[in-house]
Design goal:
Elements (H helix, E strand, L loop, with lengths): L7 H14 L5 H10 L5 H12 L2 H5 L21 E9 L2 E8 L5 E6 L4 H15 L1
Antiparallel strand pairs: 1-2, 2-3
Helix pairs in contact: 1-3
Length: 131
């Protein structure tokens, strides 16, 4: 293991070896391990940071940063953005579902055929009724 009177290059070599032996241990885990051995100092902290941050394997298999689960709404007022989706209830029965993105107001209308004209007329009829 590490000794206090090693050169910086020898310490780095030893840290690389320990890092790999412990399954590419994280910076915190390596520092905890070295601290428990009573060998942690400022120089060794810097070497551990350099070794882990420059490890090709750790870089390649690094976890992706977390992404937000919910996005911000693109709408800033009622009827600014309306989402429309066509759903099938049975083989010959559909409904058109509409949601205002700002208020989250939801509305639906049943349509008989899955055609552009039928959907458009139902949408306009319901839209005029709602406003």
């Amino acid at each position: 293991m590490l000794e206090k009177d090693l050169s910086a290059l020898e310490k780095k070599s030893q840290i690389i070896k320990v890092h790999k032996q412990f399954g590419h241990a994280s910076i915190d885990n390596l520092k905890k391990l070295i601290k428990n051995a009573g060998l942690l100092d400022k120089e060794l902290c810097n070497i551990i940071n350099d070794v882990v941050e420059s490890c090709d394997t750790c870089i390649r298999f690094k976890k992706a940063p977390p992404r937000p689960i919910v996005g911000l709404s693109k709408a800033s007022d009622f009827n600014d953005t309306v989402s429309v989706d066509l759903h099938q209830l049975h083989s010959d029965l559909y409904y058109l579902h509409m949601i205002d993105e700002f208020t989250r107001y939801s509305n639906a209308v049943i349509i008989k055929k899955k055609s552009f004209n039928e959907s458009l007329y139902s949408l306009l009829d319901r839209y005029i009724w709602c406003t």
